[in-house]
Amino acid sequence: MTGKRSKTWQRVLSLFVFRHHPEPSAKAPRIRGAMDAPVTPQNAGVLQLRFRMTTKDKGNALTRLVARRTMALATLAFAVTIPVIGCKSTPPPTPTSKPQQAQQVQALPRPSIPPPAFKVFHHDDSNFTLVTKDNASDEEIESLIWQLRDAAHARTFDKLKISQKLIDARKPIVWFHIYRGSKCASEKYAEGSPPCGGSYHGAGDYTYGGFTNHERDAGALLHDENHELQLWDPDTPYIAPS
Asked: Which positions, given as ranges, span the membrane (predicted)?
């Protein structure tokens, strides 16, 4: 009975020693003593098995460690490569918009009919309201605008009973608003509600002067406030009639 207990304790002791020392060394005192002690054939088989299991476990652990390091390096290399690829990639070309060309005004032929009579209905330093007959045609309104243009460049407004002195003192633009009849002529300056509603009811406009070009002028025939017909290109120099 005592001999069986002794063998059992030897087995337990051998298991304990090799589990806590995965790499047994012959120089270790405890291992040296165990190796020098007589070992029965049964215990020798157990000892060899423990050594083989320990060596195998060590190899597996080393293999797993190498695999983990390889995976970590591969992940790091991939993470570094992605931003580099992104930086080197060429962005899609941005469509360039073509600069818009200024639309040129097609000059209309000067009307051959004489301008209608008119009177100055109201004026201040920079605005003149002119009133002509109620049934003035479009050509007559155009002819009146051309008459104002000729007077502006020839400096003959006094002949039209318009102060040339006021025109010369413009700062820097003067406006002429032409109406058919006097019904709506006060809409730009009268107090209270406009006499003909909120929209503009002029039949034609002429402007003279500018900030960069003091002689610049423009003329337009108006059918309503949203539809106007430019009579000439305002950037084209004026040519006096022959």
From this structure: 66-86
Confidence of residue 208 (pLDDT cuts 50, 70, 90): very high
Over the stretch 24-60, which tens digit does the pLDDT of each residue have?
454 554 544 444 555 454 544 444 444 444 445 545 5
- What is the full DSSP assignment across 136-150? --HHHHHHHHHHHHH
Q: Is the pLDDT of residue 151 over 70?
A: yes
Q: How far is CA 238 from CA 139, 189, 216, 225, in A?
A: 20, 31, 9, 26
Q: Among 104, 99, 100, 101, which residue's Cα sits nearest to residue 235?
A: 104
Residue 223: what pLDDT? 87
Please tell me the pTM assigned to this model: 0.58
Domain map of the chain by residue range? 2-87, 118-183+197-230
In terms of Cα–Cα distance, which of 170, 236, 228, 235 is closest to 204? 228
Q: Which residues pair with 176 in a beta bridge?
A: 128, 206
Sign of CA dihedral 198, 202, 206, 208: negative
How far apart are the C-alpha atoms of 118 and 120, rounded to whole Å? 7
Contacts of residue 156, Cβ cutoff 8 Å, sequence gap at least 6:
150, 164
**pLDDT over 70 percentage in the chain:** 57
- What are the structure tokens assigned to 124, written together? 């201040």
What would the two tokens of residue 242 be? 């022959």
